[in-house]
């Protein structure tokens, strides 16, 4: 049975891969100064979408928002990707966007 793994369940299933992910990927690659975290998020979402790795899209969308990517920019990213990664990939990615929130009044 397929189950998406998050940071905690990955650690239970494969402690070494979880360690490498934390130390190398998020502790080094994501911390490099040439690309901003915002740019890295956009690149990551584009790759996940193009490769059909939708199990990780939800987490990376939330992470992108933390890195300053707006919902409108995410929508535009996936619309743009429809022409380069394929329509089904873009529509699948769009399904992971959270519903728009009503502005506070």
UniProtKB/TrEMBL annotation:
Span of domain Carboxymuconolactone decarboxylase-like: 15-96
Superkingdom of this protein's organism: Bacteria
Single GO MF annotation: peroxiredoxin activity
InterPro entries: 4CMD/NDH-1_regulator, AhpD-like, CMD-like
Listed name of the protein: Carboxymuconolactone decarboxylase
Species of provenance: Pantoea latae
